[in-house]
Amino acid sequence: MKVSADFCLIPMGDHASIAPQIASVQRILVEHGLSHQLHAYGTNVEGDWDSVMAAIKACHELLHESGVLRISTSIRVGTRIDRTQTNQQKIEAVTKLL
Fold first, then answer.
1. Is residue 46 within 8 Å of residue 34, measured between CB atoms?
2. Residues 95, 89: Cα–Cα separation, whole Å
3. Which of helix, strand or coil describes residue 36?
4. Domains of the chain by range and CATH?
5. Residue-level pLDDT at 58
6. Staple partner for 51: which of 10, 44, 47, 63, CB 3.0–4.6 Å?
7. Burial class, 30, CB count within 10 angstroms (exposed 0-12 / middle 13-18 / buried 19+)
8. 2-12 vs 70-78, strand pairing mode
9. Alpha-carbon separation of residue 69 from 20, 64, 72, 89 (angstroms)
10. pLDDT-derived band at 23, boundaries 50, 70, 90
């Protein structure tokens, strides 16, 4: 099943900036071959359900292995079976109406 997900992964610790950890997360998504787009408060990712969830799990594992003790992740997931539509196509559909 194809899925479009938006997730916000927050490493919990004593550092104000989490940019290095988020860069690591983005590299994991590339390694998993998933279509994704970083935004200010998370990442949109598209792919097969199991592949997307496996990639998010791999992000947690990598950060824990690098010493992050706690991670909080929020995930919103959307699926549809009537047709295929990418995140970019969703954006374009709205942009045309502006």
1. yes
2. 10
3. strand
4. 2-95 (3.30.70.930)
5. 98
6. 47
7. exposed
8. antiparallel
9. 15, 6, 10, 38
10. very high
Sequence-distant (≥ 6) Cβ neighbours of residue 25 within 8 angstroms: 9, 43, 59, 62, 63
What is the Cα–Cα distance from 38 to 24, expressed in whole angstroms? 12
Joined together, the tokens standing for residue 15 give 């550092």
Q: Phi/psi at 35 (nearest 5 deg)? A: -70, 130
Q: What pLDDT is recorded for position 88?
A: 92
pLDDT category, 16, cuts 50, 70, 90? confident
For residue 54, give every residue at least 6 positions away whose Cβ sits within 8 Å of its Cβ, in sequence order, or none.
32
Q: In whole angstroms, give the CA distance from residue 37 to residue 43.
A: 6
β strands within 13-95, DSSP E: 35-39, 42-48, 70-78
Q: What is the pLDDT of residue 31?
A: 97
pLDDT score, position 15: 77
